[in-house]
Amino acid sequence: DGGITQSPKYLFRKEGQNVTLSCEQNLNHDAMYWYRQDPGQGLRLIYYSQIVNDFQKGDIAEGYSVSREKKESFPLTVTSAQKNPTAFYLCASRRGLTEAFFGQGTRLTVV
Amino acid sequence: AQSVSQHNHHVILSEAASLELGCNYSYGGTVNLFWYVQYPGQHLQLLLKYFSGDPLVKGIKGFEAEFIKSKFSFNLRKPSVQWSDTAEYFCAACMDSNYQLIWGAGTKLIIKP
Q1: Chain A 59-88, CB below 8 Å of chain B: which residues?
Q2: Distance CA B41, CA B62 (A)
Q3: CA dihedral B71, B73, B79, B82 (to 10 degrees)
Q4: Strands A10-13, A106-110: parallel, antiparallel or unpaired by DSSP?
Q5: How far is A48 from chain B (nearest CA, A)?
Q6: pLDDT value at position B42?
Q7: How far is B82 from B17, CA to CA, in rounded Å?
Q8: pLDDT per residue as tens digits for the range B40-95
Q9: How far apart are CA B75 and CA B19, in angstroms?
Q10: Are A74 and A58 in contact (CB under 8 A)?
Q11: Interface list for chain B against chain A, based on CB atoms closer than 8 Å
Q12: CA-CA-CA-CA torsion for B112, B90, A88, B40, nearest 10 degrees?
């Protein structure tokens, strides 16, 4: 089945640690996105990539980093510089200007 | 700036009531419009989309939306809601050839059985 796989589903991080969230898609989509979802704030764009080896900052990129070495993969690293990382993180992919397809999300908690 | 606004953050209805969730966008050019639903504990799913043509679009689970260009609106409707429609609903827009999707803040819908 084609789709987007995010892992892990739940992630706990100690303060000061970097953690990496995985996102893999087998839909052959060029564009991939990372969003952060907080209650009452909708989806806020962290980073997006339209093509391999290229990515752009979204509205809230500070404290995050990404890479796009393969078309299928768009991992997100939450660095220690992110002051409030506890949130629900969603990865999406898209072909052209059509609808986006979403993964199941990763819930990150700082302990 | 391009933006999408959803008028209600929380809506509570009884089963069989009619539903209309508002969505407005701020952009004068070509837009593609989407409604997504997020059921509790699940991922975002597409309900319906508008690219061009008939401004009244039908989606899954009995939902429909009407694109009114003069009002910059794309309101979501359902004539009779069910308890299983309890979810959060998001409106999104893609404006011109921008690869970004602009999202509304979401509306939490609670259906009382």
Answers
A1: none
A2: 22
A3: -150
A4: parallel
A5: 8
A6: 87
A7: 8
A8: 888 899 999 999 999 999 999 999 999 999 999 999 999 999 999 999 999 999 98
A9: 10
A10: no
A11: 9, 32, 34, 42-46, 49, 90, 92, 94, 97, 99-101, 103-106
A12: 30
Distance from CA of A60 to the nearest CA of B (A): 14
Residues paired with residue A57 on neighbouring β-strands, in sequence order: A47
Q: Are A18 and A80 in contact (CB under 8 A)?
A: yes
How far apart CA A34 and CA A23 sit, in angstroms, is 9
B103:A43 CB<8 A: yes
Contact A42 B103 (CB under 8 A): yes
Q: Express each pLDDT in A4-63 by its tens digit.
A: 999 999 999 998 899 999 999 999 999 999 999 998 788 999 999 999 999 999 999 999
* Chain B residues lying within 8 Å of A50, measured CB to CB: 99
Tell me how far apart the terminal alpha carbons of chain B are, to the nearest angstrom.
41
B106 vs A40: CB contact, 8 Å cut-off?
yes
Tokens of A76: 């997100």
- Looking at the complex, report in whole angstroms how far the Cα of residue A75 sits from the nearest Cα belonging to chain B: 18
